[in-house]
Design a protein that fits this description.
102 residues, mainly alpha, 5 helices, flat
């Protein structure tokens, strides 16, 4: 039974935003644990997986802000999410992070 506030059927009926959300779940569930463990071990694969996970967040919220948001969506919250996802991408992309992850 699906919850009244939404479920898989409503998600897939939501068009592009629903599809991006589903893709985000897959990216997070598959790459998230790899990123956490391998980054903890300072492995390059963890750094790249973390960049992919956080990078998807940047893409998701940026697409939501410019193309997919509803009139009732809060611009401040979306921009805050973009910044929150972009900070780890920038940090993990720095030469120092590359040097530490081998």
């Amino acid at each position: 039974e699906e919850h009244a506030a939404g479920g898989p059927r409503q998600l897939f009926a939501a068009g592009a935003l629903g599809a991006l959300t589903a893709i985000g779940w897959v990216v997070t569930v598959t790459l998230g644990p790899i990123a956490a463990v391998q980054l903890w071990r300072l492995k390059e694969s963890g750094r790249l997986a973390a960049i992919a996970v956080f990078g998807f967040g940047v893409v998701y919220y940026t697409a939501g802000y410019f193309w997919l948001r509803s009139a009732s969506a809060s611009s401040r919250q979306i921009i805050a999410a973009i910044v929150a996802y972009a900070i780890p991408v920038v940090i993990l992309s720095l030469p120092a992070a590359r040097r530490h992850c081998r």
